[in-house]
Amino acid sequence: MPDKGLGQLGDGLLFSAVVVYALAMLGYAAEQATVGARRRVTSVRAASQVLVGSGGSVEVPAETVTTVAPSRAGRAAFVLTCGGWLVHLSSIVMRGFAAHRVPWGNMYEFSSAVAFVAVTAFLGMVVRGRIERGLGAFVMLPVVLYLGLASSLLYTAAGPLVPALNSYWIKIHVAAAILASGSFLLSGVVALLYLLRQRYDRIGRAARFPVTLGAQLPSAAALDRMSYAVIAFAFPVWTFAVIAGAIWAESAWGRYWGWDPKETWSFITWVLYAGYLHARATAGWKGRKAAWVAVAAAVALVIDYYVVNIFVVGLHSYA
Amino acid sequence: MTEQLDEATRLTTQPKPVEQPRRGDLLGPLRLGWRQLTSMRTALLLLFLLALAAVPGGFLPQRKINPIRVADYIRSHGALGRFMDRLQLFDVFASAWFSAIYLLLFVSLVGCLFPRTRLHLRALRARPPKVPKTLKRLPVSDTWTVQGPADAVIDDARSALRGWRVERRGNELSAERGYLRETGNLVFHVSMVVLLVGIALNSFYGFKGTVLVIEGRGFSNTLSQFDNTQPAKRFSPSSLVPFTVHLDRFNATYAPDGKALTFDAEVTWSKENGTPAPYDLRVNHPLVVGTAKTYLLGHGYAPHVVFRDVDGKVIDDRPVACLPQDPQFLSTCVIKEAATKGQQFGFRGVFTPTTVTDATNRVGSSYPGLRRPALTLVAWTGDLGIDGGTPQSIYALDTTAMKAVDNGAAKALQPGETWVLPGGASLTYVDTAQWANLQVTQDPSRLVMLVAAIGIVGGLLLSLFVRRRRVWVRAGTGQDGTTTVEVGGLARTDPDRFATEFAALVQDMRSARA
Questions:
Q1: CATH 3.30.310.80 spans which residues of chain B?
Q2: Are B284 and A164 a contacting pair at CB < 8 A?
């Protein structure tokens, strides 16, 4: 039987994680707001001849480097994100102990795990230098909203699984789906930021809020690369999740594919991300159009989880 | 850019853009059409169309999954519903338009796969392309001078490029790696075609049958034993794997709030002339006999009744399967007794495992487990209508030629109770058995599907994570005896990572002569 005390502890930890994430979001926002003031040209060097080895010389061109001085708010925000991440992790672990099973057995737990993956992917990419810390405000805002909505609307106390879910496939299929979804949602946010930045680049000074936010974003090319990197990681994971789901469906329901609404929307999501990967390699589709495809695919993913579970009758109605 | 650089830097086997046909070429329009169809842009368009076409299937009820909801939907939407039905919006995945899109997509895919495979096979055998004239124009390049002969420098470069496919032409080196990227890409797309072949195989030779089995009974895997069968177009009944399954016991456990915790069917199965073996059949745990898989799909209650005629002779003694209608297993039951002298009896009513009655005396069930079982029936006498020879559902009672007993008053029976009917016949509710709904599936495509699935995931990983890249080295010794080394590199994907890799390579080459 589920352990009520541990379950409540897990819920409390999740609430704390949301609060810490919200504080981190404010920190990132403060950092973004003062970017202009901290931007400076840090080194100017005249063209010069530099001797190489014996006799040879190489011309070094004049160089100016613009850097943005790190802000204390930004650093604090990053530390807070890491702290929130730890609290979030422990809340998920507590859920698992409370329910004596994997902590992704219903929509509430699933949402928490998806947000956790998105934050993990963001932190991982910041540490590896593949994404800029400055994007934190834009990542934490949807994470906080998402977790807030999930814990108020979808709350379910820790409890056992329905028999159909009681299989080792829940570890494989659902874990892969969570990993892919968290990453896809992150890529969706980055693709939106790309579109913002791109619009800012096109209309420049005539821009009004929210396009003006584009000024503080990394270059459009960098955002495009970030979004692609995340999708390139998540797409095979999603493919695997869908295949694992089909194998599970075959052992539970006697058919691997039956166009159940959830299966249909997973298929639509898959096709759209496949479309994104093709679009990025097709002349005339690179850039803005590809980014819109990434956004559409993320919307299909959200429909797959929330609209299908809540409004459409199907076999996946339990989670 | 020079012609040579252009060819060398084409790091992809993607087809070139569509060209206009020559005048007077009769096959021209056809050829153009084919090229259009197999172009990347068309494939992309078809992918988006496929996603779009699947959307109504994700929102509207589908006939194949839930025909009753489709009928309700059409009824409640009147003319619009009928129009939508004509557009095949309730059979999206079997519709003409959906099929057209995916068939065109696969034709486009196959048409694209052939030339790409040919090009890739050629690339696999080919030597890395010649060094471009100007290495400085490449995305990454470096140059330095060293003391020593050019061919020694090239030797050093060669050893720095371990793991690369290297071609030396005099004092020039061309190196390339990451061929597996395109291999993976082709494997992925071929596997998609294999997947479609698997689906086709199943829809031609597959079989699906369902049968309701009450505790203490069984079935054998032959066509006549199923309540409902879905054989594919080319399926032959002789390919059914011969075996029998006997349901010994069915168990279900529920949480205090009525949520199901576990179900399992304890069965004994045996092959033709084989020794019987027990098996615990559960959801997620099907019984596999050869290519046939038996699944537990559903369950319900079967109250055991005994029917006696006026003389007290037992006419009928059997469990009657009742069909569950709600999560608390309120189930509808029909009992037909035709073998009595003169008049026939029909009973219709509900079985409730945990019986409750509300203020208006309506019977309901408050829990799915057997706590206070009751069988509440209305009796009818007259003609059951089964002598005419028209087949009838055992779950429906046709009362057009019958008269209700006691003016249709319902009688609630608890286990062990007997209802003596006017005239002397009687019905006894003895105890309660359970039934399981089993499905047997024979799918000849399983192995094909598994191969396709492995190819899809494996190919995808290779095509997304292997990076194809080229490095060129040129060394020339000047009149003063120093050698100038030029290095250039090109990668289509992940330029940042390649820049790091390139810098490390240059470091390796330079340190050899430091």
A1: 128-178+467-514
A2: yes
- The residue in chain B having the minimum alpha-carbon distance to the alpha carbon of residue A313 is B61
Assessment of whether the complete model's pTM goes beyond 0.80: yes
Sorted by where each begins, the domain ranges of chain A are 162-319
Q: What is the mean pLDDT of residues B315-339?
A: 91
- Superfamily of domain B128-178+467-514, CATH level 4: Kinase associated domain 1, KA1 (3.30.310.80)
Q: Give the model's pLDDT for residue A57.
A: 46
End-to-end CA distance of chain B: 34
Measure A154 CA to nearest chain B CA, in Å: 18
Q: What percent of chain A has pLDDT over 70?
A: 86
Per the structure block, which two tokens stand in for A101? 């099973």
Would you list the DSSP string of A49-116? EEEETTTEEEEEPPEEEEEE---HHHHHHHHHHHHHHHHHHHHHHHHHHHHTS-S-SSHHHHHHHHHH
**What residues of A are in contact with residue B297 (Cβ under 8 Å)?**
253-254
Beta strands in chain A (DSSP E): 39-45, 48-52, 56-60, 63-68
Q: How far is A246 from chain B (nearest CA, A)?
A: 10
pLDDT value at A316 more than 80: no
Are A274 and B47 inside 8 Å of each other by CB? yes
